[in-house]
Amino acid sequence: MNVIVVKNAEEIAKAAYEQIVSSFQGKSEFTLGLATGGSPLGIYELFRKNKPDVSHVLTVNLDEYVGLAEDDQTSYHTYMAEQLFNHLTFKENHLPNGNAKDLDDACKNYEDLLQKHPIDLQLLGIGENGHIG
Fold this sequence. Notes:
Helix content: 25-40%
Strand content: 5-15%
Radius of gyration: 15 Å
Largest sheet: 4 strands, parallel
Distance between the termini: 19 Å
Number of helices: 4
Shape: globular
């Protein structure tokens, strides 16, 4: 394990951003797991500012609220569009379907997607209540 000590949120965002980009540069395919919340905001800001080539990067998100339409302002679909997907052209972007009529089937389909495209690197955050995700 490589531990990186930083002084503030700006430094951790920069270090994480650089690690993520160096992980997918030079690869023909890469699956990047993404998170929502406050932790990745600085990282997503650096993606928007620097606009790295992500045309070969497929993204998969951790979660979505059950019962919210994708275009609901509080959905993770909207969060990801505003923070990242409207600014860069990834190969594909995938989020769980929290508004599916059959949630068990939607979960199975997402698991199938993850089997087909195993995550190469997962970005996680730490919530205010201490959860990791």
